[in-house]
Design a protein that fits this description.
seven-stranded mixed β-sheet, Geranylgeranyl_reductase, 21 strands, single chain, 406 residues, 12 helices, eight-stranded mixed β-sheet, FAD/NAD(P)-binding domain, oxidoreductase activity, alpha+beta
Length: 406
């Protein structure tokens, strides 16, 4: 893992000594890819994250066809293969009534440790300045004051409190990000009945094949399992909050769900150190403001599975980049409306599909019936699988314009 270490390319003092064209808060796939695309177009860009890299994330180890299409569009199509990503051929849905195997039209599994580090490196190679282990807060805009020509982003830590100026700022700091906590009217609203995310990576040589996404469904939630490029087994789950409290631990509840679905529990499942997330399903009232764009999980999350979350993040990054670049050169309020419109158009079909499937997974009897039907006629799942994996321009109506910038 030390070979994946990403070192900062700039100090906080150096970052303070210029007005940036764009500052991107959050160096996950959405933030890193957006920063790369904006820098490739000719802007000076600062990418900030509170963590040091590499770092492990709860989920996002599956890149579906839509995510791979975005990488190809922006000139990073070879990246998954360079990381040793494993092709994904099948989705195995498991419930109390048995198992159904559905063919996947494409996709790969790759660890977030490797993927996130590679995307940050790609951003740095395109001219992005990178600053890690730094908390960033986007300060409220005062249109009547001297900051009307830029936004201010405050960097905070034990021994520093540094304001930076930028012509545009992008918030891509994820579900639990705090960069926008001072921005009025942009509070994140959690959906009623939202589930809790949890995940773990196990050194398990056992029963789960590579190239297959296993999805175990039961009343308390669902658990996804997939082999990664280094042979480890990644588990990502969405749990009912009350069921999680009653079970005592994520590992115990995951074991319960796997048992109901007829799947074996890896030996270290209950004793491993699980990592959790905040409540999953949430949304902001809007994804923009004056000289501000919000993307990725920071803008909203609809409990995706089998690769949708990363695909949404990458597609959002590729779509917002030319809009942010234009805003860095000359800001107009129409850019906010443009991003809101493009984002809505881009995600409508995919989010609707995930809501329908998510609603099904929350109803064990319906899910079990669906698995029973698909076991006999797996081709019935093809329209849903296609909708999830289709290249972005086939669901949003327009191809990304960022490919020419890479």
């Amino acid at each position: 893992m030390n070979s994946l270490r990403i070192h900062p390319t700039i100090t906080r003092a150096q970052a303070q000594n210029r007005i940036w064209d764009a500052i991107v808060v959050g160096a996950g796939p959405a933030g890193s890819l957006a920063a790369r695309q904006i820098a490739s177009a000719g802007s000076n860009v600062l990418l900030i994250d509170k963590a040091h890299f590499p770092r492990w994330k709860v989920c996002g180890c599956c890149l579906n066809g839509a995510a791979l299409a975005v990488l190809s569009e922006v000139g990073l199509g070879e990246l998954p293969a360079q990381l040793g990503a494993l092709p994904l051929d099948h989705l195995r849905l498991c419930a109390s009534t048995g198992q159904a195997v559905c063919r996947l039209p494409g996709g790969v599994s790759v660890s977030r440790v490797a993927l996130d580090a590679a995307l940050i490196r790609a951003a740095i190679e395109s001219g992005v300045s990178f600053l890690d282990e730094t908390t960033a807060t986007i300060l409220p805009q005062d249109p009547a004051g001297e900051t009307a020509e830029w936004r201010q982003v405050r960097l905070e830590g034990n021994d520093f409190d540094t304001p930076l100026r930028t012509r545009v700022v992008l918030a891509a700091d994820g579900l639990a990000g705090r960069s926008l906590h001072l921005e009025p009217g942009l509070e994140s609203q959690v959906a009623e009945g939202s589930r809790v995310g949890a995940g773990v990576v196990l050194d398990d040589p056992g029963d789960y094949e590579q190239g297959v996404i296993y999805m175990a469904c039961a009343l308390p939630g669902y658990v996804g399992l997939v082999r990664l490029e280094d042979g480890t087994l990644d588990l990502a789950a969405a749990f009912d909050r009350k069921a999680l409290q009653a079970s005592g631990s994520p590992g115990a509840l995951a074991a319960q769900i796997l048992k109901v679905a007829g799947l074996p529990a890896p030996p270290a499942l209950e004793t491993a150190a699980w990592k959790g997330t905040t409540l999953l399903t949430r949304r902001r009232s809007k994804a923009s403001g004056t000289r501000l764009f919000i993307l990725g999980d920071a803008a909203g999350y609809v409990e995706p599975f089998t690769g949708e979350g990363i695909a949404w993040a990458m597609q959002s990054a590729a779509t917002v980049a030319p809009i942010a670049f234009a805003g860095a050169n000359q800001w107009t309020a129409s850019l906010e409306r443009q991003w809101e419109s493009r984002r809505s158009q881009m995600l409508f079909v995919r989010e609707r599909t995930c809501r329908y499937v998510g609603a099904l997974l929350r109803r064990p009897r319906l899910a079990a019936t669906a698995v029973s039907i698909l076991r006999r006629a797996p081709w019935l799942a093809a329209p849903v699988i296609y909708a999830i994996n289709a290249p972005p321009w086939k669901t949003s109506g327009a191809r990304s314009s960022t490919g020419s910038n890479s």
